[in-house]
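Good day; I would like, with your permission, to put a structural problem before you. I would ask you to consider whether the tokens describe a fold that such a sequence might reasonably adopt. The full record is reproduced below for your convenience:
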Amino acid sequence: QQNIGAALKAFVDGYLSGSNKALMLGASFSQQSQVIAELARYYCVTQIGLNPSPDLSDRTRYPYYFRMATTLGISVAPVVAMTREFGWKTIGLIVQDYAAFLSVTVGLEAALALHNVTVTKAGYTTDPTVALSSLLKKDLRIFVAIRAMLVEDSKKRLDCVIKQLGAYGPKYQWIQIGLPATTRLDLPNSGCQDSDRLVAMEGSMETDNDIDDPTAEHEIGITGQTREELFEDFMRLHGKETVDPEQTGTVGFDLRFDAISAVAMAINTTLAVENYASDPVDLNCSDFKDQVFNSVRSLDFNGLSGPVKFNSKGERAAKVLFYQIRALKRDLVATYDPLTGDTRWIKSPWFAGGSAPVDSPRILSKLVHASLVSAVVSGGLSACGACLTLAAMAVNLWFRKVPYIRLSSPIVNTIIGLGCLLCHASCLIMTFNAYMGSQLGLCWSQLLCLITGYSCAFGGILAKTWRVHRIFTNKMRLTTIKDWHLCMVIAAILLMDAGLLLALGLLDSPALAVKRLSEQDMISDGAVVLHKLVVCQSSSEVLWKGLIIGMKAVFLLFGIFFAWETRTIHVEALNDSKVIGICVYNTTVMGLIGVVLEFALPIGSVDLRLVLLTCCINICSATTVLLVFGGKVGGQGVLTILKDRSVRVADASAVMQSRQPTTGYEHRSGE
């Protein structure tokens, strides 16, 4: 029984009476063993015990104690080696409040600290829910559990708590020390189902050793028989004489047999060099007792439980076994030799994610590109718009001398068409940049095409609207405005654009920059994938966009003013004056929508930005082409072209004199 007083009495009665004694066996319980071992050092009595208490490894207090059983402390070095094997630097340690686990916990923490491994510990008594939850909140992925399952709450066993909290799968790894009993099935009075334990513990690891593991195979030792054979003979001859007649297995029997064998061999070795005298009784230290101690310390033989050899702490140098749990069965994957410190892998361990999980999130980068679908949609629309524009420009140039076309200033119309074509080209470049990744040269090309195209297209519309306004609102004198006047207006706008772009290039030239987006992905092994986008931008991006948009807005305001002022003018000689006004309103509306989209859409919405912005530009450009050129190449326009194809107009003023304006104003215009 676990009674310290009974142990002390047994020692006094046994040691202080009778003949001289230099070696003893026992005791069974930890507190009894510690008391006797501490007392025995004052008499230099060597003690061989079976108790696994880690405290008995303290040679300053128990210098004469030799342990035939193993302790949990032998798992410390192998677990540290495992963390180094997979590069784990952050560990969650969950420990059950159990006296036998105190020493191994302190030793493991100290050993991991020596190897710069950060340990976060949480303890529990019977319910590990709170402890594990606190560790999971710190995003820990690698766990070492020191536990004895049979003393946990039957409904809150760690196996099932792991399942409940989701601490399993590709991003987690568990290593268990102690008495986890993971492979025990159909536990009585358990609210923890084997099906849940199967899921939670799949791929976890636990340590054992070749001494305590009943399935471990050993070489046949000094008895010439296997463990099973000798146990069968012993039970047949002495089964009724054992303290526990119900013992039916070799567990424990092998350790007791090896302890008796160690005693016998140590005594034989000692008697070969020292004489034993039973009288007179000598309770003090002696050469004989020292020789017994040295004989035990130098033992080296193969016993039933494996090799018997003690280290400097009086412990057996057992080989540690790493088992991996697969379908609630143990699968040996590695061994650790404490004498050499080497880990030998028997087979590659299995991991749910295909590779060992990481102790903290791996940060991966992913460059975001436009999808193929959005690229096809935006690129297809841009290409269709460009083809439409080219066709309209070709008709405009081919029939430029036909009166119906010539009266509409075909040169200016060609510039408008060229501007719309450049806008479609900017959309194609934008699509290529979004799908293939931004390139600095293409960024400049996109900017130049868009700004120049807008200035050409809207500049031509603005010039034609200004001409109509100038002719019909100047009452004092006749006004002559020729095509080269309109071209000078367009050139002035382009010159301002050139100055602004030159200032941008010299003062704050755009460069490629990588922007981290707020969106991120989590892959199976717990790695975090950060989304990044390559963009072209200058350091004062908002300022330059404001200057460009502000300058274009001023032109829009003038265009709106001229269009509103000339909204009631209908002159056949200026056959597209009303259409030009509609183009101004169209450009204004689409321009406002484009500005809102540019600043409102998140930069990470690559597909949405690409499709909406290109659609906005393409629709505005295509609508302008249809309004400017559509009336001349379709419907009544075709009939007029065919009818007037042979007619030559030498001067537009003659046409205007023969066709009275609806406003009643006298005027003269040269186009």
About this structure: Residues 367 and 532 are 5 Å apart (CA to CA). Confidence is low (pLDDT under 50) at residues 634-642, 645-671.
